[in-house]
Design a protein that fits this description.
alpha+beta; 43% strand; Urate Oxidase; single chain; elongated
Amino acid sequence: MIDVQSQKDNRQIPIDKVGVKNIRYPITVRDKENGFQQTVASINMYVDLPHDHKGTHMSRFIEVLSEYRRKVTLENLNTILDELKNRLDAESAHLEVTFPYFITKRAPVTQAEGLMEYICTFKASSKSTKGRDLVIELRVPITTVCPCSKEISKYGAHNQRGEVRVTFRFKKFIWIEDIIRLVEESGSAEVFSVLKRDDEKYVTEKSFENPMFVEDVVREVARKLEADPNITWFSVDSENFESIHNHSAYAYIERDKA
């Protein structure tokens, strides 16, 4: 049969990324407490396409992924990238793997256990001209209390749930749990999946005693990441889903420590 994808294209325009998106697939992730954790990821896979190629072979992306069924891990992303470049005759390859990661958290007073979900993304690329790159992104929920509201209000202060997104490059292996912990300690209080009345009292009072703007949150996270010699580059943003305003509050910091 005719291989249309391999036919010539005369427009002289190369494509930076072409491939497949939103593939739901089981993966294995390193777990600090249990060794490994099975989860389900949404995976994007791309390669570059030279100017004289009409199209890429989409089925080959799925074939490569199928060869690593349940073996898509942080440690073998480079192997998968190399296989993509080899099978698709490409100069560059890219993988984006987004998945829910679960950590058992204990309530601060009663120690009641519950699973907390965090959204993680591995972004890996391999380019013949620029080498390899790996970035991890984590989205961590927090609670904040508004310092201004606490200062001016007679009876209390408004509080809200927020989300901190941390993206970083690093020198050697790093535990997801350690970065999540760093972020959770940078808000007014943590978010839990299970809280009894004693726990609610503790969390409410702790957050009220530790009011923070989004500016405070990103600065606190940035301060800790700056002090970690294993982190070479990072960005951090914080968004508060305001409880009394019809908007979100937002702040962002990016630093290249190299």
